[in-house]
């Protein structure tokens, strides 16, 4: 019995004599899942951070869907994903506190605003309790509103560039969908559309005036007779383009499905822009040219 007892290893000796490879395997077995989760956590933070453009660059409009797809691919729940967004917020906030350069501070502020905007869109209605901006960073409701509004306006401004004088219905519908996705209010979207349409009209008017005035100065400087009919025709074509564009704006604003189109459709008035004497004289020149043609 005594001999048998000596042959049985004690618990202490079994651990002490355990081969190093086996001990490493047990450690990896126990810590492996935690290490994998940590690696996934770090990788996810790096990915989201890389998707957001630097502070001096505007959003492209693809960031929200890219992050949502990435979150689903990893199988992350909203709570864990939201915590990662907060980690990025802490990093940006810390970098801003550490910088003494005014331009760098402004860049970090814009980066933080973009993070707020993209994060709120990623988590939608749940962002109010998943993303504690106010509690963690002392951000006010007004500052959050500014971040949401300014980034939405920037994205919508890019969308408006696709709208030309032809007013394609498909494009108008796409722009409306983009506005809703960007969470931009109808009032601001309508104002931006009207400004865009007015800019298109002003381009035609400026072009027509340049044509007429260049012809006038050519006659004045050379005192030579010349055929001004071609120039007059070109100028009138610019005016006709304005009239056609304004007519389309009016017709589409009364369309049965106008609520599916971009906000702000309607005739453009140049009142206020052309109300002083010089501008009024310019419009008189265009009117005379149009009547002459």
SS-based class: mainly alpha
Shape: elongated
Average pLDDT level:
81
Low-confidence stretches: 1-18, 23-36
Biggest β-sheet strands, sense, barrel: none
GO cellular component, one term: TOC-TIC supercomplex I
Organism: Dichanthelium oligosanthes
Protein name: Protein TIC110, chloroplastic
Pfam family, one: Tic110
Describe the structure.
With 293 residues, the protein is mainly alpha-helical. The protein folds into two domains: 37-133, no CATH class; 169-292. It has 13 helices and no strands. It is elongated. Residues 1-18 and 23-36 have low confidence and may be disordered. This is Protein TIC110, chloroplastic. InterPro entries: TIC110. It holds the Pfam family Tic110.
List the helices and strands and how they pair.
Layout: H1 2-7, H2 11-16, H3 20-51, H4 63-74, H5 78-98, H6 102-123, H7 127-130, H8 133-137, H9 141-160, H10 169-182, H11 186-222, H12 229-253, H13 277-292
Helix pairs in contact: 3-4, 3-5, 4-6, 5-6, 6-9, 9-10, 9-11, 11-12, 11-13
Short description:
With 293 residues, the chain is mainly alpha-helical.
Quickly list its features:
elongated, disordered N terminus, mainly alpha, 293 residues, 13 helices, 2 domains
């Amino acid at each position: 019995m005594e001999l048998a007892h000596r042959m049985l290893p004690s618990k202490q000796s079994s651990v002490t004599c355990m081969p190093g490879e086996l001990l490493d395997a047990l450690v990896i077995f126990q810590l492996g899942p935690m290490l994998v989760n940590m690696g996934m956590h770090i990788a996810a933070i790096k990915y989201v951070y890389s998707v957001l453009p630097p502070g001096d660059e505007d959003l492209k409009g693809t960031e929200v869907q890219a992050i949502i797809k990435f979150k689903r691919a990893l199988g992350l729940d909203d709570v864990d994903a939201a915590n990662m967004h907060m980690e990025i917020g802490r990093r940006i906030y810390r970098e801003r506190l550490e910088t003494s350069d005014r331009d760098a501070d402004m860049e970090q502020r814009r980066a933080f605003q973009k993070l707020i905007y993209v994060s709120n869109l990623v988590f939608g209605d749940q962002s109010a309790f998943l993303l504690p901006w106010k509690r963690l960073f002392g951000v006010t409701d007004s500052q959050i509103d500014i971040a949401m509004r300014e980034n939405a306006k920037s994205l919508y401004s890019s969308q408006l560039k696709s709208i030309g004088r032809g007013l394609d219905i498909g494009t108008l519908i796409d722009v409306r969908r983009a506005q809703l996705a960007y969470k931009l209010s109808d009032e601001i979207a309508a104002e931006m559309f009207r400004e865009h349409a007015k800019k298109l009209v002003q381009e035609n008017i400026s072009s027509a005036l340049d044509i007429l005035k260049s012809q006038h100065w050519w006659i004045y400087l050379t005192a030579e007779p010349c055929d001004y009919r071609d120039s007059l025709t070109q100028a009138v074509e610019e005016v006709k383009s304005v009239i056609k564009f304004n007519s389309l704006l009016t017709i589409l604003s009364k369309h049965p499905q106008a609520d599916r189109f971009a906000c702000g459709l309607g005739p453009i008035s140049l009142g206020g822009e052309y109300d002083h004497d010089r501008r009024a004289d310019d419009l008189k020149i265009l009117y005379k040219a149009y009547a002459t043609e």
